[in-house]
Each structure stands twice: as C-alpha cells, then as structure tokens.
Amino acid sequence: MLDSLVTSKTRIKLLLKFFAHQNSGYLRSLAKEFDESTNSVRVELNRLTDAGLLLSEEEGKTKIYRANDKHPFFSEITAMVSKFLGLDDLMERIVKRMGEVQKAYIIGDYAKGIDSGTIQMLLIGNNLDREYLDFIRLKTFEKVNRKVEVDILDADPGDIQGILIFGK
Length: 168
Fold this sequence. Notes:
The chain is an alpha+beta fold. The protein folds into 2 domains: 2-77, Winged helix-like DNA-binding domain superfamily/Winged helix DNA-binding domain (Arc Repressor Mutant, subunit A), CATH 1.10.10.10; 86-166, Beta Polymerase, domain 2. Helices cover 45% and strands 26% of the residues. The strands form 2 sheets. The protein has a 4-stranded mixed beta sheet with strand order 6-5-4-7, with helices on one face. A 3-stranded antiparallel beta sheet has the order 1-3-2. α3 (27-34) packs across α4 and α6 (87-98) runs antiparallel to α7 (130-144). The radius of gyration is 17 Å and the shape is elongated. It starts with a helix and ends with a strand. The relative contact order is 0.14. This is Winged helix-turn-helix domain-containing protein. InterPro entries: ArsR-like_HTH, WH-like_DNA-bd_sf, WH_DNA-bd_sf. It comes from Algoriphagus limi.
C-alpha cells in the first residue's frame, strides 16, 4: 500500500526509519544503511524536511534528522507506516491471546529502525500461552513476510533496550 502511494523507494525507507521507530540519523549513515547514494538520500531528506515531516539540527559539523512529532500528520503517517509493516495488528493479536501479558517490547533491529526481515519481540508476564506462540509464528510470516522471534520473561529486568508497545 505505502509503496503505491509513495513512488520513491528511498523516501519509503526514510519514512519507515523515522516513523516506525523514533530514530534519528545523519546523511552518510542513512546512505550506508540503505545502500543508496548520498545524493538520493539527501534529495529525499530535503523534501521531507521542506514538507515539515522531518526536523534537522546541527550536531557539530553533522546534520541530524528526526521525525517531527509536532507535524499535524505525524500520527497518521506513523499509523500508515505501522500498518504497512503489519506490526499493529500482529502485536494486538499476540498480546490479546497470550494470556497475562504485562509488557510487550519490540527489540533488536526493528527497534533500531532496521528492517532485517526478522521481528524480535519480548513479552513479560506469567502463565503465557506458549502453544499459541508457536502457532502465531507461522501465521505471522504468512501475513507480514517477516520472521518473528518471541522471548518470554516472567519479570521485567528494567534495562530493556527496545520499543514498549504494550504495558506501562
């Protein structure tokens, strides 16, 4: 859906990077990460900045970009990107059906804004339905074309590096 609305592959990568995950980045690192020329990334960064969707700030000699969470369309773009990735429906289903989930995190590459093809989740809770977990792994791959790895902890260790998607 997103790729039919936005014709630039580089722009799609930038939207995914900045709106699926609250990341920041600079030109050369983004070009290297996306395996794109710095010029094509620069053009799209400028377009998104001119549209007000991205903010840029100087950090020494480096210009750092991040999503503008004050933009009127921020939540709509975030929702569209999330639906494009299939994560919103996936997370909602897993959390509702697993049992007594206290917290759910996206960790690993996706939490860093990298689409590696594998979604890593961490669920925290007691008496979670592990049989359903095995079933949902297969269904998820069919739906979002990404492998899903889920780890379960009984208690929150308090130092999890990731995106909290459920719980407080």
